[in-house]
Amino acid sequence: MGKKADKAGRKKDKKIEKQNKKREKKAKILKQKASTITPEQRLDMIATAAYYIAEKHGFDPLRATQDWEDAEQQIDTILKSIP
After folding, report:
1. Are residues 57 and 68 in the same domain?
2. Residue 2 belongs to what H/E stretch?
3. Rounded CA gap, 83 and 10, in Å?
4. Is 30 in contact with 83 (CB distance < 8 Å)?
5. What is the DSSP string of 18-50?
6. Same domain? 45 vs 75
7. What one-character DSSP code corresponds to residue 59?
């Protein structure tokens, strides 16, 4: 392998290493955010999601409980998926 190929390989390795560090940092931040969500914040997230779900169904009052349960499940799934 020539000097140019070695230099290109090292440059590529450094770029990959930098990308991996960024990903690790982002994952760490997301994990901290997920672990610091208060019950009040979770409730606010559920209420917002329930609003948009209800909006899709024309704010049908007969679906209010189901919309809330769907929102709760949706938010909990998202929060659990954060590393």
Report:
1. yes
2. none
3. 30
4. yes
5. HHHHHHHHHHHHHHHHHHT--HHHHHHHHHHHH
6. yes
7. T
